[in-house]
Design goal:
Elements: H1 2-7, E1 12-17, E2 21-28, E3 33-40, E4 46-51, H2 56-62, E5 66-68, H3 70-77
Antiparallel strand pairs: 1-2, 1-5, 2-3, 3-4
Length: about 80
């Protein structure tokens, strides 16, 4: 049952590009959890789970993130890109 619930969540995706790295974030807007993938221009990518709060959209926008789609995030998450 819990697996069925988790699949019905519509995640939100954000992206930020700097001169040093690209950062992609997938947010679970129900549980306020997220996966962040950092892809540096040089070096290896890294992923981490982070906690968010109900104001995540405003906080990310203030940090320079823009709304993004799931394709790029999932390519990096699954090691395809």
């Amino acid at each position: 049952m819990a697996n069925r619930i988790s699949k019905s969540i519509v995640h939100q995706y954000y992206k930020k590009e700097t001169s040093e790295a690209t950062v992609l974030v997938r947010i679970d807007p129900i549980h306020y959890t997220a996966i962040q993938i950092t892809i540096p221009k040089k070096g290896e990518r890294k992923g981490e789970e982070i906690e968010m709060n109900e104001h995540f959209a405003q906080e990310l926008e203030a940090q320079g993130y823009v709304a993004a789609g799931p394709l790029e995030f999932h390519l990096y998450l699954n090691g395809v890109a």
